# Entry
Amino acid sequence: MVTGSLRVVFLGTPQFAVATLDAILASRHRPVLVVTQPDRARGRGQRVSEAPVKAAATRAGIPLLQPSSARDPAVVEAIDQTGADIGVVAAYGKILPTTLLSRPRLGMINVHASLLPKYRGAAPVHRAVLAGEPETGVSIMRVVEALDAGPMFACVRSPIGDDETSEHVEGSLARLGASLLIETLDALVEGRARETPQDHAAATYAPRLTKAEGLVNWSLGASQIHNLVRGLYPWPHAYTFHEGARLILLRSSPSIEAASAPPGTILEAHGDVLRVATGQGTLRLLQLQVEGKRPMATREFLAGHRVSSGVRLSAGP
# Structure
């Protein structure tokens, strides 16, 4: 049993991980090193900028390492020099080599945004929303060589609202996961932590998102397309084409109301209403964005663009 506080090596990169790092900073435990990915070009302007975890670590004055590869021998050397008790991983973004997993004396644990063994992999939040799941959660597990397959210390459940986007769900899970992580570290210190093997036969996977997945198939049901819109927000976005222009769909609302027109047909286009036929039901588009322009509510979009009922939205320009 370890007593007192833990010296923590933290590995993370995006905004999701910042809540966990902040929680460690506010706890009795002490982050002694942060490992994050190198600075990269981000956003429409593709300007090189710091990832959120790097910015948080810099503000807190925590020693920082940004290896181009987690296999860099300098990572092992840096961890060894800290005398770390444990490693905490939260959306680091790269698979860790076996050589790293045993460097902290208590190994490494991971804050994973799903109810394992469901949605192992890189995009668990988005995949849960895309699938229309009514709930998701956060799991704290031991990092092992296989992808998200280690025994679990704890999990917490969280509902997914019918209109919640991946961005909103991920923010909620970041806060829940941060709290659960501290509870797990405290349990390890006090000798209360227990590890439960996952049911590998029940595992599902959440592969990385691609831009191609955003193309709307209007033959699907309205609820499925609505899940695509909210599941791919804030990236890579659901999209369709209107008279050759790429139209990004940011907010929507499904209805079971039957449509008497082929899927993709614009049924209404006036005021605040832009309603489209789908394979099952209809979909109101509430917020849109013409590629290269700013997001607009439906009323503003219709005021500035000629959109006629009877026109079909398409799968290409």
About this structure: The domain at 7-202 is CATH 3.40.50.170 (Rossmann fold). The CA atoms of residues 144 and 211 lie 30 Å apart. Residues 166-189 form the longest helix (24 residues). The first strand starts at residue 7 and ends at 12.
